[in-house]
Amino acid sequence: MPTAGKVPLPAEGGPGASSTASRREDVLTRQRRQGARQRGCKEAQEGAPDNIQGITKPAMRRLVLRSGVKRISGLIYEETRNVLNVFLENFIRDAVTYTEHAKRKTVTAMDVVFALKHQEHTHYGFGG
Questions:
Q1: Which residues cross the membrane (predicted)?
Q2: CA-CA distance, 110 to 104, in Å (whole number)?
Q3: Phi, psi dihedral angles at 63 (to 5 degrees)
């Protein structure tokens, strides 16, 4: 037991002490979470951030200013994210459809070109 006036060491139950049981519990929790992610469980997906928020305001601002626009409304950013999200959902769905039809598991450059062409956005330089 610690004596008066002396700071207890972690091994004596002082600050920074952790029991073997709590460390084992942390490891088990991490393993459960990892297993849930591998199985694609809902609980693993609930805490996932919305990736479309990775398209930041400064990044959009740089693109818009490069195109020659002088001022940008604050409402543009969220609207742009929504439009981009819809475009990407449709585009990726088409690319995956081409991949599945070819009985492959890897999306190729040609799948991407065909998906873009299907949406009337022709991309040159990759065949097709």
A1: none
A2: 12
A3: -65, -45
